[in-house]
Amino acid sequence: MILHLYLVRHGQTVFNRYNRLQGWSNSPLTEQGFADANKAGAKLADIAFDAAYCSDTTRAEVTARRILEINEQAGNKRPQLISNMHFREQCYGYFEGQDMAQAWWAAGAPHGAGTYNAIVERFGLAATRDFLHEADPFHDAESDRQYWDRVEAGFALIASNPNVHDGSNVLQISHGNTLLSLMHRFASEGYDLSERPSNGSVTRLDFDTEKPIEQAIRVVSYNQ
């Protein structure tokens, strides 16, 4: 069973504007954030969705409801929106809400890499999570394994939905670092991952529900 996933990064938030880490914490959409949701809704107006998912954060839920509202106005049947913690952004623990540059310095400097990009270049994306988990005095920031266990459970939830079938289109409101992580893990060469996905952008994945996770995801397009 192949599902066509349309992953949308939520609209811009206050923390996005101020360049602060925003994982399990939350902040409201800005005016630009509502415009991002409207723009994404217009892009997806002609897609009939059999299911819709988002994380249980206000920024994701508001973005999802606006996209589905536009989709319904275009004549499509509106699926039930399922909000679940498995679709949350990475948990940054102690560093939630902190300035990004300061947080990644705290994580990477002990390893000789003082920025997010430097950590990725020298040690790989998994190290960004493991280093932050290590630097967190409470160790509440998710390790790489904790993160992927949760994200993979989200894919399992989608696969078990009785309302989807082979060829179904599924809307999923996602988050910046999660989209980038999915691309690093599953994308073939040829994608520019030097920039984070834009708020309101659409990334398309094909998901084969009957294959092991490493073989189940094919990237169709990124950051559109």
TrEMBL record:
CDD domains membership: HP_PGM_like
GO biological process annotation, one example: regulation of pentose-phosphate shunt
Coiled-coil intervals, chain numbering: none
GO molecular function terms listed in the Swiss-Prot or TrEMBL record: fructose-2,6-bisphosphate 2-phosphatase activity
A GO CC term assigned to this protein in UniProt: cytosol
Domain of life of the source: Bacteria
Family annotation (Pfam families): His_Phos_1
Nucleus listed as a keyword: no
Keyword Hydrolase: yes
Keywords per UniProt: Hydrolase
Protein name: Phosphoglycerate mutase family protein
Species assigned in the record: Bifidobacterium tsurumiense
